[in-house]
Amino acid sequence: MANLLGALIGAAIDRQDGDSGIKGAIVGSVAETVIRGVVPIVATFALGWVVQYGARKAWQAMAGEDPVDGATADTRSRPY
User: Fold this and answer.
1) Cβ contacts of residue 5 below 8 Å, gap of 6+?
2) Organism's domain of life (predicted)?
3) Phi, psi (deg, nearest 5) at residue 67
């Protein structure tokens, strides 16, 4: 029942070619399952990137420089 929408959409697309729609229903069901697994991973990555970007901008505002050396991507503290 959870993959019903993907199966219906896949079958409808497959029927446009004149086929029975069975293969499209299977592909649609598999595609929906894959999308359900990938979307949370992508959303987590995007949220982490936004938080990291915000933290870097806040550091730049407070310290006046980027905490990551652009040439080497070194995050260790530098002696001044």
Assistant:
1) 32
2) Bacteria
3) -70, -15
